[in-house]
Design a protein that fits this description.
Number of strands: 12
Order of helices and strands: EEEEEHHEEEEHEEEHHH
Largest sheet: 5 strands, mixed
Shape: globular
Helix content: 25-40%
Radius of gyration: 23 Å
Number of helices: 6
């Protein structure tokens, strides 16, 4: 009697266990091997881990699709779609005909996710910042234009955003006190330091605001550069928030701050917890959608 080929149970993801789409899209009915990475938009937009080069091809509808095949001791066939394309993980005992039958069964999902991955890669490439005079980046949902201005070297941190200054055609000027021949690394480091200072100032103010509304006390705020989390909170009142949240508009920042402070009342994601978050951020679903869909600038 032939052995039955199974598709494993759906992969479950917590809200802040990963943030926005990262490395590999997994079939919800067939998770990949243990070393494949589920997809959410990661806050730091790190480079995806390379997958194996495509070794085989299969005709899905009218489209010929290359894929890499990995054999393992798993019990089911799984699919993962990342920057390098489609990877199939299959038990060693499953024949090639059965693998291709499973691929054809999931053809619509595979072709849709491949198209989404190509679009995401296009957006990630477009988000890479070329660090020079005139570079642009988002800040609180608006666009800043980097302007190298040695006169600003006397400013605290050597960077100045003048709210009274007329906006440039591409956005508001962020004046950086560096010479016009500054290296990309110097420009990046100066801007990133400024963003992190702004993040701490904004986060502290919003923590004070929402702590009062929620009736909780936070004792310590730390900035995070985590690859897979927007924030976290501990029962002792410690809160960590990813500094890259300053790229988003204030409603999205407020949602993350309120989410973490709500954990000081309920250290779980129970219905009671979500009721607490929604009591101070009624439009929280919109903010969650923004966190999942936006591609943040790539700092290199």
């Amino acid at each position: 009697m032939p052995r039955r080929i199974e598709l494993a149970n759906p992969l479950q993801l917590g809200l802040f266990d990963a943030v926005a789409q990262a490395d590999a899209e997994v079939d919800p009915a067939a998770p990949p091997a243990a070393d494949a990475t589920p997809v959410w938009p990661a806050p730091a937009a790190q480079e995806p881990r390379p997958l194996a080069r495509a070794q085989r091809e299969v005709l899905l509808g009218a489209q010929r699709v290359g894929y890499a095949l990995r054999r393992s001791r798993r019990r089911s066939i799984g699919f993962a779609i990342g920057a390098e394309g489609l990877t199939v993980s299959a038990p060693r005992w499953v024949g090639q005909a059965d693998i291709e039958a499973a691929l054809r069964e999931k053809a619509a999902w595979i072709l849709r996710k491949l198209a989404e991955q190509r679009e995401r890669e296009r957006r990630v490439q477009a988000a890479r910042i070329v660090w020079r005079d005139g570079a642009t980046l988002p800040f609180l949902g608006a666009t800043l234009v980097v302007v190298l201005d040695p006169r600003c070297a006397v400013q605290p941190g050597g960077v100045m955003l003048n709210a009274a200054e007329a906006a440039l055609p591409g956005g508001r000027a962020l004046r950086v006190g560096l010479a016009h021949d500054a290296t990309p690394q110097q420009i990046r480091d100066a801007v990133q330091s400024w963003l992190q200072r702004q993040a701490r100032r904004i986060f502290e103010e919003r923590c004070r605001h929402f702590a009062a509304l929620l009736g909780v006390q936070w004792r310590r705020l730390a900035l995070s550069s985590a690859q897979t989390r927007w924030g976290s909170a501990s029962a002792d009142g410690s809160v960590r928030l990813n500094w890259r949240l300053v790229h988003f508009s204030m409603p999205t920042i407020d949602y993350v701050v309120a989410h973490e402070l709500a954990h000081l009342r309920h250290m779980d994601h129970s219905p009671r917890f979500w009721d607490v978050v929604r009591s101070v951020v009624p439009d929280m679903d919109r903010a969650r959608g923004v966190l999942r869909s936006e591609v943040l600038p790539v700092f290199e």
